[in-house]
Amino acid sequence: MRSSTSGHQLLPSRRRRMLPAWVRGVDRTVGRRLNASASWHVHDRAYTRLSRAADHGLLWYSIAATLFALGRRRAAIRGVASMLVASVTSDVVVKSFFAGPRPLFDDVPAVRRLRIHPSTPSFPSGHSASAAGFATGVALESGRSGLVIGPLAAAVAYSRLHVGAHWLSDVVGGVAIGAGVALLGRIVVPARAHDEEVSDDEVEQVVELITLPASDDGRGVLIVMNQGAGTAVIRLDPRSTIANRLPAAMVRELEPDEDMDDVVREIMAGEDAPQVLGVYGGDGSVSRMAHLALEFDRPFLALPGGTFNHFSRTAGIESVDLAIDALQSGSGIAASVGELTAGGRTTTVLNAASIGIYPEFVAERTRRKATLGKWIGGVVATWRQVRDAEPIDITVGGRRARVWSVFASVGRNTPGQAATMQRRTLSDGVLDVRVLHARGSRLQAVAALSFGRATRAVLRALRLLPPASDIEHITATDIAISVQPRHGEATFYAHDGELERRPAVGDDGRYTLTCRILPKALRVYAPAPSRAQEVLDSTRR
User: Fold this and answer.
1) In b/e form, how buried is each residue of 249-283, taking b as 16+ CB within 10 angstroms?
2) Is residue 516 exposed (0-12), middle (13-18) or buried (19+ Cβ within 10 Å)?
3) Could you read off the pLDDT of 283-297 as tens digits, one per residue?
4) CA distance 109 to 490
5) What confidence tens digit (pLDDT) does each residue in 489-521 have?
């Protein structure tokens, strides 16, 4: 049925009851004036093509791939996740509730019409929800990227009006849903720009800047490349960058069956042994090469190539180019490291070592990675921990305790956190140990290890986090933890995201992990701080 005044369909009873009369009046007025406005072929076709390009999120997937290639990985992931949730919310949930009709196809000027006029319910605009969700999600992680994508998202939302596919209220409702979903997502998974900023009164920054041998062309530098690093994310191949900027460097790619230790030791035993040891890889590869750099007393070059790159990010090494800049300028940092010993085996720890829920999560994720991939496998592993996790019995400092987890961070870390995946300081000379006592539920324990400080207050108010008193803080230069594994179960420990099977138990049915700090022991190439930063001695607190 047509309206006698607008030439558009009357809104059905459910939509008319849900939307105020003045909103319906604005919809009709905007639609009438837009359809009566002069047509400009190039202008109209541009909006038609833009609207079609956003079908099924293809435009946003393409932009996300570009963001990945440019190193804005978190922005791309958050943008796509927000878009998908916003799309489902608008197209599956809200559309079925409102069930409003779209503007009449015949009222739209021919040059603006889509090839196929949509027949699904009109309110809200799914294209607008997806556009706003993606743009807002990206902006939460990268403000500059958001400034570029925001106008494009607005153009996509307007294009749905221009082609006559939606009413104004549909577009406004879609934008509200998309932006709302992205902002709610920030509560669940805090944006890095806000989550990783730690105020000086929380963690005193301890950095000792040093001068290291510079190499303009890579002469005397060994770079080992882990081909399996960072497979869970998309990143640019670093080979051309390394070849162009460090043509004289020795680059060695590890084969799947090769061990980094064996390869490096063989090269170091030859003539003209490298003067700098470098690695392209994730946290596990970086910590392994750091161990070798300490063994051979060589400066260390970390080229970030993993999924998270925790140590590299703390050192300000956000890209391969920044690492090479530091090498060519000879700027560096004296970084403290941990030395972890278990069953006679000693390992260098750059970020943190842990026992309890987290290693079991990594083990479960590893088992499912081949069939489900790292991210979906991680979701399944988290669910299994919520359902099946069991506390462990330990002895630390002569006291027995039943705990969900223990994390030993290199250097003082953010107060109040149970999990310290990424270190906050580089030259601090202590271990920051967090013991999560098993007084609450599995769900509370997993939540405490999964979420950052930006969401702690909300989750604690909802009783989804254990009370702060359940998290014990221990600051020490060394620590020994005796663990009693559960009978018949394989128990693991982890360091820098790498999983290790526990050592054999002794006559008392226990095994012991010891960790000690090596203050400022690792000489690592790193860019100079971007702002004036006081060089502090790690003992001055």
Assistant:
1) bbbbebeeeeebeebbeebeeeeeebebbbbbbbb
2) middle
3) 889 999 999 999 999
4) 69
5) 557 888 888 888 888 888 888 889 999 999 999
